[in-house]
Amino acid sequence: MHRRSSGFSVQDEAEDPLVSRVSTDDGHGASAPVVSEALRSPVTAPAGCVDLRPDPHSSTPRSRNSSAFRTPSSSSSSSHAPSSLSSSSFSSSATKSSAAMMPLGSRQLSLEGSPETLRGRQSRFRSPWSCSLLTLSVALSGLGLLLFILHAFIHRPVGADGCDVPVMSPTYIRMVEFDAEHTRFASKYNLFLYREEGVDPYTQDNIGLNGAPVLFLPGNAGSYKQVRSLAAEASRYYREVVQHDQERLKAGTRSLDFFMIDFNEDMAAFHGQTLLDQAEYVNEALAYILSLYHDPRRSRRDPNLPDPSSVILIGHSMGGIVARTALTMSNYQANSVNTIITMSAPHAKPPVSFDSDVVHTYKQINDYWRAAYSQEWANNNPLWHVTLISIAGGARDTIVASDYASLASLVPETHGFTVFTSTIPDVWIGMDHLSITWCDQFRKTIIKSLFDIVDVRRPSQTRPRAERMRIFKKWYLTGLEPVAERTLPHKEPNTLLTLEANTNKILAQGERLVLRGLGNHKEPEAYLLPIPPQGVPGKKFTLLTDQPFDQSNGNGNLEVLFCSVFPLQAGHTTALFSMNMDLSRGGSGSTRLACKNAAEDGIHLPASTPSSKHPFDRVRPFSYLQYDLEDLAEHQFVAVVDKADSPSGGWVIAEFSDSSDAVIPTRVGLGRLLSAGLHMKLPANRPMLTEVKIPSLHSSLLAYKLSVRTKGCQEHPALFAPLLRQSMPEPHESKFFVNVKDVNVNLHGVAPFMPPPLREQATYGGVSFQLWSDPTCGSGVDLSLTVDIPNSLGELVMRYRTVFAAFPLLVIALVLRKQFKVYDETGYFIPFMEGLNLCLRSSFPLLLLALSLFASSLASSRRLPPSDDPFHWRTNATETVIDFTKNDLLLGAQDAFFWFLVPLFGLISVGEPASIFDPDAETTDHQHCYSAAPRRDGHPVSVCIFGCVYRADCDLCAGAVACQGDETGGAFKLLQLCALDPLPHAVGASD
To answer: Which residue ranges have biased composition labelled Low complexity (predicted)?
Structure first.
């Protein structure tokens, strides 16, 4: 048999056991062990002092796990018997004999041990279920906190699901000729072409390629059929809209040919090599797709158009990472990809970091992209013509944290950006990980933006990079962001507005325009707002209406023009204008204004009425205009033209406001927010738009509650209900709240483990709350912001999913270390709960304190200049701040305020292993139980031999215990003795 020794070899043949197995028939067919003479005479001797010192000539090593006595081989004179108790049972006569030889009450056997021995002896008698009050309280507190966090995560407010279900008729054509001659993964992956049944013309011989190629890449264990919602909308939109627009056709707009790859539902998120294999296959598929357009049998394109040289990539989840990886592979064909759109793709960090290959692959990909965009010259940047758009679903996505979709650390704002679905105009919905692929409102916006960037007159099949970025910002951003572009300064006047010389529709400087109802004059009417002179700081023009803005020559009820005086002098002619709007009514001395239509810069806002519930309600949105005074430098008037010829229920509010009144900065910290909250009152004479900026609100780990209280209008009904926008500058996350009263605020800002952004100032800009309210009501607005602690705890789940598994492993390792340490000192392997109790009283608090201080120092060092930062690594001269790994350390928190997360997770990590502790397994592991023969009453008997505790002063093993008991719960009688061997055996007697 195998035994553990203390570094010495043990000869089993040299053992003379003190308890030998001898077959003794007692009439019941049972055999009983017989105590050898080596043990019998000393025990039965009446002497008060027994010499149990080991033989000085013996060299037999001690083994704490041995289950039998060991005697020097030189003193062995009899036949060698087994060294441990076997499965043989006791007979009743043998039991009585043993009891007679070793009476339980005998004083000769009562040997007192040291205090350490007594403590070890008490601990071994303790039930595995038993634990100290400290351990019990800490474990229950940690387990209760964990359950509370999970409950808060499940029930946290993430917004309603407002996605409509799309309609489609899919047909998938497999590219069977894309076989082993083109790729070594032909037997593993497949390439398909999508055709919308009844919409896309195709035959078995000609698959009908006619437009710009698009390749869809599914995510981790995803299906290639997820493309059907996007592809179906592309086919239907082209047939119903684009095909009938001759201007767009002349501009190079054509249909979209959707291809997709079947990755056989591979787990790319868990295996780095799978990620590389898929990227290699994508590059080979790109080359094959481009070759199809050279074959006239498969293409119906105009032969005068150039053959495509690039493909648009759309990736869902890990498919977006595969798309970026493809551009780093050696088999990538240069410029074969210039546009990538990803949905819920974890760009910044791998979603799970269990596989080192995935982490290493991510590092290689991100380093390549950062290095490419850090080149000074465009010729040295292989990604110069690539635009990357990352779209995240927000808090509803519980598969991939939307923080990881950020491109702030990878791509400059000239080549890409991150946006949330709640930001996209006319969508305004947060989406989960799967609905982002099929949501009807979202897919319509994606397809419209793709048609706007397509230009088949160019080999790249798309417009230039700068123009693509402008189009994507127009479709995906609200238009309220600082990076949003305005077309008005770049346009030429196209409308000549003629007014009466003595018109009384010119408002005074600084006066607000309010129209309650359109068409009251039953003829077109123009209202002029004078533009303040340049040099006045902080002036901004805002206009809000429930009517859509009318283009020039349109049939709408409202048109907004920015005008300057147009004098009729020699050389000037009215033929320069495509639109002549004469409102002079034939009077003499009329005034002529050269105007620009502002409809292209119109911004859609969710309609907010007293009956509104969600921003995505199926009602016509509000129309909004906003310009800084610098954008209106060449203009003198803003003309709001009411073109309705009959009374209608529309309304308009327009004004110039000062930033001192419209923007309210706050200097409140997280500590004050947590203790007292933030409370403010907006005056009754406030502007229509009021913005509250809170720079300290930038962490993804905290949730808040915002209360908006209005007192109602005094003289007349409000034109609209208060509308609130929550926004951050980076990433572009906006949330709208209609008919706002109470708001649950959560955000995706500075998140744990995220690499620092390319522009540090953008990350710490904080949250802005923009409130549109009716300024004509004459009543104030009360705002109250407090920290929502329960929902803040729920935010920890998505950001620290791996920590909930890693920290308990640390606790288990500490307890196991303590168990082995006690075992080395005493020879007794203490139960898990007892080891946990010892850790809680010694090393664990010190460890948490050290880790808390370390976390605070890491967070504080991020605010220091590189020269003063003690963690600034200078090992590589080419290393940039993006490559630093400080954000990967410990909890990855980037704010010293969150130092308390270390003890919080420490408390949880104690409750987790304690809740799954199995005392039965501990009993089996740490005591040796042997079945014995049944007693005379028929009940079974078991003999349990525990470990022993050494006595260093006399080199003895004291406290070894053997017990007998029945399985019906009868009492045990315990026998203690000292012997020469580390694991002595003793025989107990039961009643």
So the answer is: 63-89
